[in-house]
Amino acid sequence: MKIVIDAMGSDGAPAVEVAGAVQATEEYGYDLVLIGDEALVGRELKKYPGHSDKIQVIHAPEKIEMHEPAALSVRRKRHSSIVMGLELLKKNEADAFVSAGNTGAVVCASTLSLRLLPGVERPGIAIALPTLGGASVIIDVGANIDPKPIHLFQYAIMADAYSRYILHKSNPTVGLLNVGEEETKGTEFVKETHALLSESKLNFVGNIEGRDVYAGTVDIILCDGFVGNVILKVSESIVDTIFKALKQEIKASVIATLGAALASSAFKGLKKKMDYDEYGGAPLLGVDGRCIISHGSSTPKAIKNAIRVAGEFITQGVNNHIVEELESY
Amino acid sequence: MKIVIDAMGSDGAPAVEVAGAVQATEEYGYDLVLIGDEALVGRELKKYPGHSDKIQVIHAPEKIEMHEPAALSVRRKRHSSIVMGLELLKKNEADAFVSAGNTGAVVCASTLSLRLLPGVERPGIAIALPTLGGASVIIDVGANIDPKPIHLFQYAIMADAYSRYILHKSNPTVGLLNVGEEETKGTEFVKETHALLSESKLNFVGNIEGRDVYAGTVDIILCDGFVGNVILKVSESIVDTIFKALKQEIKASVIATLGAALASSAFKGLKKKMDYDEYGGAPLLGVDGRCIISHGSSTPKAIKNAIRVAGEFITQGVNNHIVEELESY
After folding, report:
1. Which of A235, A254, A295 is the best mutation test for B, with the most CBs of B within 10 A?
2. Closest Cα in chain B, distance from residue A142 (Å)
3. B325 vs A55, A169, B140, B165, B297, CA distance in Å?
4. Which residues does A281 contact at the CB level (< 8 Å), separation at least 6?
5. C-alpha angle A129/A290/A98, rounded to 5°?
6. Is A310:A3 a contact under the CB 8 Å cutoff?
7. Of the candidates B265, B135, B130, which has an alpha carbon nearest to the alpha carbon of residue A249?
8. Closest to A69 (Cβ–Cβ): which among B184, B210, B234?
9. Which residues of B touch A261 (CB under 8 A)?
10. pLDDT single digits (tens) B102-150
11. B222 closest CA partner among B151, B119, B305
């Protein structure tokens, strides 16, 4: 089992990726490949003199930047860490790829290099969200911003396998994000998707609303990639806004500052609960390979957990389960 | 100036509406009509023996429930508080309508009774959001879930007038919600809308992302009603989730409980900052009249502020400004 890590992806690259990789070899014992600027990666690796010989470095002279157009950059930068890393999977020299880089480029290069699983028409990005009811999966959060109902149906099948074999849920519930719970509500797209899901073998509970997302009402939340992308970014922003505003308020009073210091254990506990890093990256479901996408602002812990998830995708044979399930339709 | 309040709309109706109306007459001196079940409304009004003779009660024997289908309920319940209240505007017996009831029914009945302003093809619901940069307006949050680009263009013109004349912003910036900032990003719908806005006289700053919503990056956030509805409900839910989780953490420790008590001024300050009630309801922009929609869980203060906003729409002549601006295209 060998996992390739894009060493040039995150905002803190390559330091963050190298630190995460070192932690992952120590904890899980996987064989890892760090792909990227050899000199920069080597310099970081020197900070961990006892680091395992399980980490190999492969040089990739180019880097796709965060805001480069996806398809164009993948075509032009054949020697980038993303394109070269995925080529290793294509040539069966590695089993999984982890990147905190340009999401669009990773989706595009994965689809080109790995192709899609039989029965899948579009890949989708699934993210595990922290909710009051534990982790729920939301798919798609941006791979496919103008999907057809059949794509969401396939996402549901794929997220079901992810929930069962990685998140260990026995009969995950599936909800379709809509503006109301009634079957008559929503756009034509949502209504057609509802009809497809109703006829499936999935544990489909019907429409859900925005307020159900963090309430943990269902295990799997289905939506188009435009809506999913907006939800994720709004969520991050509102959490940030609340804590910034709370800090301002606390600073304004000496007593409140003392109180906040005393209550710091509670704030830390909350931070841990809301911690995306624990869930370790978002699998790109539907490609014929394993590709885990991490946030650009990933910490070493987030990278380490993304590597763990990549390993679980391999050992659990998630893709085989997806293909079998899709074949049954 | 006479403002009609649907006394049967909110979850706490009619007590909440009556309390809000009494506060509004005391603060603003408007003439108000409470429309709804006369006996129930009368019983509530008796709790305010000194209440002004500026509040009139009109009996409406029917009530549209929260989850009734919008168009059907409006057709069938001609004697509901919503339909009868809007008829008063149609007959020029009142100048504005405020309801915390079934949003779909209010949109539908308003469009049927009041018709649309010249140059407007669809009404849109605008909500003032509390952000780090003060109040921003988001439109549409659910009146029109499958709009055309021209509808969003018209929403931008209408929200511009709302921002100028009610929120007192001198040259409000307009952002189009998308999955990325680049012009090349997004669905065909978003790209066409971007092109229309680029040619307008509006202070259009281009695409914005989900993370800009609560950062207060722009004064006006444009999106389709499906996305807007989901954003609002996700936002409410995430705030709720954070505070529930924080409470759990605080309860788990005696010292944290003491700390939280000392920091309570900060929590109260934050609550006030994030308080939707202050903004007083969401105008349904585009109808040829003034209709303010409040949240089903409105407090008396929210109703009072919705009445204030209704009054400002009348005195500021917002609809005239919208029509003039649209005529210039």
Report:
1. A235
2. 8
3. 64, 55, 19, 13, 35
4. A98, A100, A292, A293, A294, A295, A298, A302, A305, A306, A309, A310
5. 70
6. yes
7. B265
8. B184
9. 259
10. 999 999 999 999 999 999 999 999 999 988 778 899 999 999 999 999 9
11. B151
Distance CA A151, CA A176 (A): 13
Dihedral, B67, B69, B74, B78 alpha carbons, nearest 10: -60
What SS3 class is residue B150? Answer: helix
A243-257: b (≥16 Cβ within 10 Å) or e: eebbeebbeebeebe
Residues of A in contact with B259 (CB under 8 A): 258-264, 266
Contact call for B230 and A188, based on CB within 8 A: no
Q: Do residues A294 and A13 touch, judged by C-beta distance below 8 A?
A: no
Pairing of strands B291-293, B282-285: antiparallel
In this model, does residue B192 exceed pLDDT 80?
A: yes
Contacts of residue B255 in chain A, CB cutoff 8 Å? 262-263, 265
Structure-block tokens of residue B259: 């700390």
Strands B203-208 and B173-177: parallel
Closest chain A residue to the Cα of B130, Cα to Cα:
A241
Greatest alpha-carbon span in chain B: 64
Measure in Å the smallest separation between the Cα of B213 and chain A Cα atoms.
7
Residue reference for tokens 């970014």: A233
CB neighbour class for A1 (10 Å; exposed up to 12, middle 13-18, buried from 19) = middle
Q: Which of B212, B245, B258 sits opposite A273 (nearest CB)?
A: B245
CA atoms within 13 A on the CB side of A77: 25
Tell me: the pLDDT tens digits for A115-157? 999 999 999 999 998 887 788 999 999 999 999 999 999 999 9
On chain A, the residues whose CB falls within 8 A of the CB of B229 are 179, 210
Judge: B238–A236 Cβ closer than 8 Å, yes or no. Answer: no
Instruction: Let me know: does A174 contact A220? Beta carbons within 8 Å.
Output: yes
Q: Is it the case that residue A3 has pLDDT exceeding 90? A: yes
Q: Give contacts of A263 with chain B, Cβ < 8 Å.
A: 250, 255-257, 259-260, 263
* Torsion B91-B93-B97-B100 (CA) sign: negative
Of B209, B234, B265, the CB nearest to A210: B234
A188 contacts in B (CB within 8 Å)?
Answer: 146
Cβ within 8 Å, pair B266-A273: no
- Which amino acid, B316? Q
Nearest to B160 by CA among B197, B114, B109, B210: B197
Determine the Cα–Cα distance for residues B12 and B264; give it in Å rounded to an integer: 27
ipTM (interface pTM): 0.91
Burial A30-44 (b: 16+ CB within 10 A, else e): bebbbbbbeebbeeb
What is the rounded radius of gyration, in angstroms, for the C-alpha atoms of chain B? 20
pLDDT band at B264 (very low <50, low <70, confident <90, very high): confident
Which residue from A227, A239, A267 is facing B227, i.e. has the nearest CB?
A227
Q: Do A210 and B225 touch (CB under 8 A)?
A: no
Q: Which helix (H) or strand (E) holds B73?
A: helix B70-76
Give how far Cα A189 sits from Cα of A96, A153, A177, B222, Å: 34, 12, 11, 21
Q: Reply yes or no on whether the pLDDT at A286 is more than 80.
A: yes
Compute the count of residue pairs across chains A and B with CB atoms less than 8 Å apart. Answer: 201
Q: Which domains does chain A have, with CATH numbers?
A: 1-120+286-329 (3.40.718.10), 122-277 (3.40.718.10)
